[in-house]
Automatic annotation (TrEMBL):
Keyword Manganese carried by entry: no
Name by which UniProt lists this protein: DNA-binding response regulator
GO molecular function, one term: DNA-binding transcription factor activity
Protein's GO biological process: phosphorelay signal transduction system
Top-rank taxon: Bacteria
Domain spans labelled HTH araC/xylS-type: 405-503
Protein source organism: Vagococcus penaei
Segments forming domain Response regulatory: 5-122
Location of the protein in the cell: Cytoplasm
Keyword Phosphoprotein (UniProt): yes
Record's keyword terms, sorted: Cytoplasm, DNA-binding, Phosphoprotein, Transcription, Transcription regulation, Two-component regulatory system
Residues that bear 4-aspartylphosphate: D57
GO CC annotation: cytoplasm
Length: 506
């Protein structure tokens, strides 16, 4: 025999000990699986042990029994709880019944027989509920097959279960939630089955979840009922969304309507971040996007006007969003446009680590965005990050150009001296290795080769325009060794200095 498990919650240890000894629990089909001294302690024990019944005091420190009953009702609706009350606790008892308490006992009148009778009555309710749930589970399985397109033998059984010929579909998707179990627990009390409403849950394709509802209530009345019950869920699940269909008067139309909600639900959800429930009538008319005219955009890339490219991208998406495009197409467009931009910047700039990192983050994240507001913020943030990168690179380019000009001028003014890369590094306050690398990257030659080019060009001018002899020209150009100077000159111009003068001087 499976014993019904009980958790005792009271801030007085003597009460807890007394309850544990009050009855031969196992003999009567019950088992005490734990105790807690206040509501906070109880929540931890409930989560760990999942008792069938909680016996709780009302007045306790930390978290009282009233707040505990609200938590049980919201998060653990399958658990029954019995309230122990003093005479002056009655207002609390009344509220606890609203929170789902199944019974209460006054502490001064507590006897073994009264407690046992109360617990047996609760266990009977539990057994009856389990039978009802089993029947509903069987009908739900048949409903799942029906909604999945299979023929079923007992469709009339499902129809008889429903009390009205007016149906609604309340649809959501498990993928929209962090905690599937919490969603299912909340949904156990989302729709009360009573004279005005009956419902059956369905799950198809693993993730499509919801209820088929039969009711004479108007859509507005049903919407108000569900909305009020979703408040607590939305506090925990920030992305929770339910979609309520239009009224359906033929059960055979349920599958068609459900498929429509499923196909449109994802893309509609993109535009309803602040909503926990929307109706089918609120669906937006989403548009297929026109292809982005990339001519001006590509022209600005070819002209290396990257800031202009970003401005055009920003304007483009501002215009697109107003037209309510389908989110999948909007994200594809963003991926295509930004991929081209990222790739171009990586080809152009030497320092690409930051751009590569941003590119990978963008392409990975764009498809995961759930809402329009987050999409817009993501695009604007990416554009600003790229603007910052481009501005820094442009500033660095300007600085490099100034440095190049200063180096060229310095060499032009000092080529005749004993100039070396060490002298240059000391003059411009750079590390020798850095300056050597900088020189190679920007002049595409070594420092010594560039210096020889400057000196020999000046030597050629002096040979043609001055009366200096070979030794004087070599010295004026920074060469102390005439033979070395002559060798370099012939290698560069194909003739010795003296021959060059004879053949070219007017």
């Amino acid at each position: 025999m499976n014993l019904i498990t009980i958790l005792i919650v009271d801030d007085e240890k003597s009460i807890r000990d007394g309850l544990k000894l009050l009855l031969p629990w196992e003999t009567h089909g019950f088992r005490i699986i734990g105790e807690a001294e206040n509501g906070l302690d109880a929540i931890s024990k409930i989560k760990e042990n999942q008792p069938d019944i909680v016996i709780t005091d009302l007045i306790m420190p930390e978290l009282d029994g009233l707040k505990l009953s609200a938590v049980i009702q919201e998060q653990y609706p399958a658990i029954h709880f019995l309230v122990l009350s003093s005479y002056d606790d009655f207002p609390y008892v009344s509220q606890s019944f609203k929170n789902g308490a199944v019974d209460y006992i006054l502490k001064p009148t507590l006897t073994p027989d009264k407690l046992l009778t109360t617990l047996i009555n609760i266990s009977k309710k539990m057994a009856k509920k389990e039978q009802t749930i089993s029947h509903e589970e069987l009908l739900s399985q048949q409903l799942n097959r029906f909604l999945s397109g299979y023929d079923i033998d007992n469709q009339q059984t499902i129809e008889r279960y429903f009390k009205s010929n007016q149906y609604f579909i309340l649809y959501t998707n498990f993928l929209w939630y962090k905690n599937k179990e919490h969603l299912l627990q909340t949904c156990q009390t989302l729709l009360p089955n009573n004279l005005s409403l009956t419902s059956l849950p369905f799950t198809i394709n693993n993730n499509e979840y919801g209820f088929i509802i039969s009711t004479n209530l108007t859509q507005k009345e049903l919407l108000d009922m569900v909305s009020s019950n979703l408040v607590s869920l939305r506090l925990v699940e920030k992305k929770a969304l339910f979609i309520l269909s239009s009224p359906i008067d033929d059960m055979r139309e349920l599958k068609k309507q459900l498929n429509f909600l499923i196909s449109e639900g994802y893309e509609q959800r993109f535009y309803f971040k602040q909503h926990s429930i929307i109706t089918q009538q609120e669906f937006l008319s989403l548009n297929d996007m026109e292809q982005y005219d990339t001519k001006k955009y590509l022209r600005s890339l070819l002209n290396e006007d990257y800031l202009m490219s970003l401005s055009r991208i920003e304007k483009q998406f501002d215009q697109l969003i107003i037209k309510l495009p389908r989110p999948t197409l909007l994200k594809q467009q963003a991926s295509s446009i930004f991929y081209t931009l990222f790739s171009t910047l990586i080809d152009v700039y030497t320092e690409t680590t930051e751009i590569n990192k941003l590119k990978q983050h963008f392409l990975f994240s764009i498809g995961e965005i759930d809402y329009l507001e987050d999409f817009s913020l993501f695009i604007l943030t990416t554009i600003q990050q790229l603007k910052d990168i481009i501005t820094r690179n442009n500033t660095a380019t300007i600085y490099n150009d100034e440095l190049l000009n200063n180096i060229v001028t310095f060499i032009g003014n000092n080529y005749h001296t004993n100039l070396s890369l060490i002298t240059l590094a000391e003059t411009f306050h750079f590390n020798y290795s850095y300056l050597s690398s900088f020189f190679s990257n920007h002049f595409h030659t070594s420092f010594s080769e560039y210096l020889n080019t400057v000196r020999l060009k000046e030597a050629k001018r002096l040979l043609l325009e001055s009366s200096f002899n070979m030794s004087e020209i070599a010295t004026a150009c920074g060469y102390s060794d005439l033979s070395y100077f002559s060798k370099l000159f012939k290698k560069c111009y194909g003739a010795s200095p003296s021959k060059y003068r004879r053949e070219n001087q007017l």
